[in-house]
Design a protein that fits this description.
Strand order of the largest sheet of chain A: 5-2-1-6-7-11-10
Number of helices of chain A: 7
Bound molecules: copper (I) ion
Structural class of chain A: alpha/beta
Radius of gyration of chain A: 15 Å
Oligomer: homodimer
Largest sheet of chain A: 7 strands, mixed
Chain lengths: 190, 190
């Protein structure tokens, strides 16, 4: 059956990161839900970091399934809202304990730092939050995408295609699948 | 004063291309309006090519100003809707006659081909519509971004950051501005 992904976003999330993750995963055949955090209703769009208004498929508190990956886009104040959300913490804990992938890009690795999931792990982030990861015990990398166990991290909008392709490869069971790269990179003109 | 941009999109436009153009231009200090084509109301979001629902700032028929650039994202059936829209044709004609920039990525150069704006011009597009450009008299290029006079074209989601940066450079009056590249590429981690 199709692998599944849950992408979480909030007001002030980076719209390019949010949309690249959802779109590339759907191109890869991953059943992908875009869920809102902190909104009172899914009737209204969220307002992203540069003012683009995007509708969630549903609010995060309606997502009771177990997905194969939980994806956190960056952007501020979106990443801080995700970090401080009890619903996000509960979803991450549940998926981490089930051995599912957790993926965070740009400022969003601060969510994983706060939850002590980066201690002794190789990880990266946007440079602006490097010290938060180091203080949480991460072995900081400047690579564009870093995978350590079930945790995938990446740096920003410009690394987000590679980040999403890494997630798709990992879901296919092959961390560097030539087939996935060929199927995704070529039509996108990467 | 700030330069201005009008980004046009429709149901079935490529959401990554739409959002990258709007976001990068806003990061560059360009006053950017995202306008919908073919929707009956701006109360409802458009449904993009991979199902992401994005709100326009206003419907295109409300856009009576002269902008410094008109930007057309690709994706299907969005690009075909843009091509067949009388409002889009009117906006492009008005801006082209005023010597403003016209920029199209992915499948959207078919709009310019149909309007005979590519005859004798260097241009590129997604490979899937290359023959349409050649038949319209374009000198086809496989470069990732091509500027010829006031027309800027590019290839797909993976070239869209470069496309948007080229637009920002051109609006700053310097087609290869090191300052614009530094200001945009570095924080985006390109
Ligand atoms: Cu496209």
């Amino acid at each position: 059956s199709m692998p599944s992904a849950l992408v979480l976003f909030a007001d002030g999330s980076e719209e390019m990161e949010t949309v690249i993750c959802v779109d590339v995963l759907r191109r890869a055949g991953v059943e992908t839900i875009l869920a809102s955090v902190g909104a009172t209703s899914s009737e209204h769009p969220l307002i992203c970091s540069r003012g683009v208004r995007i509708h969630a498929d549903c609010p995060a508190h309606h997502c009771h399934d177990l997905y194969d990956v939980v994806v956190l886009p960056g952007g501020q104040p979106g990443a801080t809202t995700l970090r401080d959300s009890k619903i996000v913490q509960k979803l991450i804990t549940k998926h981490n304990e089930a051995g599912k992938l957790i993926a965070a890009v740009c400022a969003a690795p601060i969510v994983l730092a706060q939850m002590c999931l980066l201690k002794g792990r190789n990880a990266t982030s946007h440079p602006s939050v490097e010290s938060t990861l180091v203080e949480a015990g991460a072995t900081y990398s400047q690579n564009r995408v870093v995978k350590d166990g079930n945790i995938i991290t990446s740096r920003g909008p410009g690394t987000c295609f590679e980040f999403a392709i890494q997630i798709a490869c990992s879901l296919s069971g092959d961390d560097n699948s030539a087939d996935v790269h060929e199927a995704l990179a070529k039509p996108m003109m990467l």
